[in-house]
Amino acid sequence: MLRVDLKVAGGGQLRVQAAFELAAGQVLALHGPSGAGKTTLLRAVAGLLPADGEVELDGWDFRRLPVWRRPIGWVPQRQGLVPHWSPEQHLAAMGAQLAVGIEEALRRLDLLRLRARPVRELSFGERQRLALGRAIFAGRPLLLLDEPFSALDARARLEMGDLLREQLSTAGSMALLASHDLREVQRLGDRICLISSGQMLAEGPVETTLRQPPNLRSAELLGYRPLPGGLVVHPGQAVLRPGPGLVEVAGVVVRAVPQDFGWRLELRTRDGRPFSADLPAAPGLPAPGDELRVYFPDLRLGQSGDGV
Prior knowledge:
Blueprint: E1 2-8, E2 16-22, E3 27-31, H1 38-46, E4 52-57, E5 60-61, E6 72-75, H2 87-92, H3 102-108, H4 124-136, E7 142-146, H5 154-171, E8 174-179, H6 182-188, E9 191-196, E10 199-205, H7 206-211, H8 216-221, E11 225-226, E12 232-233, E13 246-259, E14 262-268, E15 274-280, E16 291-297
Parallel strand pairs: 3-8, 3-9, 6-7, 7-8
Antiparallel strand pairs: 1-2, 1-4, 4-5, 9-10, 11-12, 13-14, 13-16, 14-15
């Protein structure tokens, strides 16, 4: 069990305050816009920034340990690799910490054919796979991952995400994953911590928090739009037929934007409030100027933007 309760006081850095718990084998996703404080929080947990509070791992406070002795695997955005070393040299330098053989690690990272090539000659995505693999295969109880999939293509993201979940389950490790990609959060996260301007707005199970954000600021961060009466609506929850627990919202179509899943319709209510609805591709798509009745879950939040 990981328990974090930290306050980073600033001093040239963004002020950040957050508290959460995480069980073995789980991923907690730190989600928020650029500059929200995700990296600052990871660096504070790693001991690279001074902070007040506690970081307990299975009941003991490892903040008393020097940084180089903390039981963490750390993947910063800059990757932390030695430019003139090859992937094989990076893995060999881990020694007994490497949870699998060097050959197997290179194969799982799709780096076998590049095993002897200096890191400076690898693509950014190849370097990213190596940096992430070193952390995953180190078998440390806690991984700190700062946007680790940002340089990977869609296939590599899926493969490395599966590898991360597999190794966490095998080793009983935990991971803090900083990400601004909600699809990534939904696929890999067990819990989510929403952060904005250094403040923790919400923390809880991923699906519950995304479906029912606890306050207005969290909802807006997740893409919800506020409508009259405290109602908030999310484009991905729109349907065209009424049903139990749904509320009708009428609007005029402003434009239709093509998406992978079909179309995102941008609409305005009669009083001028903007909202959106995601709909699959189908014949007879409403045109700009058409009035459309859309149905959303009846989710109503107060105007408070305070964190949990």
